[in-house]
Design a protein that fits this description.
CATH architecture: 3-Layer(aba) Sandwich
Largest sheet: 7 strands, mixed
Distance between the termini: 51 Å
Strand content: 15-25%
Helix content: 25-40%
CATH topology: Rossmann fold
Number of strands: 9
Number of domains: 1
CATH superfamily: Alpha/Beta hydrolase fold, catalytic domain
Strand order of the largest sheet: 1-3-2-4-5-8-9
Number of helices: 7
Length: 254
């Protein structure tokens, strides 16, 4: 379905403190996709910001002209807003949101810790990039979608049913540029990976764990597909995220 800002696609935030958490949704998704995690963090007393990334949450035509730089800029503004008013900030992301999460940790070494759920971090196959180029050259702007990747038949996702090709291409190129800097991630990292994922190959998580220099904690989600934040393991995802964020943002003992 096409996301509608009146149906859960809008940005979400909650006051709290003194620690902040930035929660980032994925490509073609909305904050509704990560809302269970954001709400659990808010219930735990954190200040939470889950921004709606440019081009998302309205109609797919609005996303055609957006690029990775636009999504990163929005994530950066949200991070800086949290950092200006909170003692420490952690970042959480699903899929492309995890790509942006890694970018935040690279650019801001002060990040307390990051949570990456089914992260997209490996460069894509060159054949895929060439296929996207061929489609763009032929005048296509959007590729058809296959629906949300959820094991739970009762779950649903507010997201576009399709992928803007030029926007996707910008994400693929950004992954190439990200590689040289992944080792600069020195903060604690929690990686949660679905055992079966039809969108992002699970070996992306292996790649991230091998590249970062900070301590890594890994969780396997046995009952969920790609959108694990809404799937059978959603309560586990939220609980593990809260436990990790509580630990990395805790102030010094008195």
């Amino acid at each position: 379905m096409q996301a509608d800002a009146t149906l859960g696609g809008e940005a979400w935030a909650a006051p709290g403190g003194p620690s902040g958490v930035l929660v980032l949704h994925g490509f073609t998704g909305t904050p509704a996709t990560v809302l269970p995690v954001a709400e659990a963090l808010a219930d735990a007393g954190h200040t939470v910001s889950a921004p709606l990334l440019p081009g998302h949450g309205t109609c797919i035509e609005d996303m055609i002209s957006t690029r990775y730089a636009d999504w990163w800029a929005a994530a950066e503004v949200a991070y800086l807003d949290l950092a200006a008013t909170n003692r420490s900030v952690a970042v959480v992301g699903l899929s492309m949101g995890a790509t942006l999460t890694c970018e935040s940790a690279i650019r801001h070494p002060e990040v307390a810790g990051i949570v990456c759920i089914n992260p997209l971090v490996r460069p894509v196959e060159r054949e895929l990039l060439e296929l996207v180029d061929l489609m763009l050259d032929s005048g296509e702007t959007v590729s058809e979608g296959t629906g949300p990747d959820l094991a739970d038949p009762e779950a649903s996702e507010t997201a576009y049913d399709g992928s803007p090709l030029a926007a996707a291409r910008s994400l693929y190129l950004a992954l190439d540029h990200l590689q040289a800097d992944l080792s600069r991630i020195a903060c604690p990292v929690l990686i949660m990976t679905s055992a079966e994922d039809h969108v992002v190959p699970p070996d992306n998580s292996d790649h991230l764990a091998a590249q970062v220099s900070g301590p890594v904690e890994r969780i396997t989600l046995p009952r969920s597909y790609h959108v694990a934040t809404l799937d059978h393991d959603r309560e586990e995802v939220a609980a593990r995220t809260v436990r990790f964020v509580n630990r990395v943002t805790a102030g010094p003992s008195l």
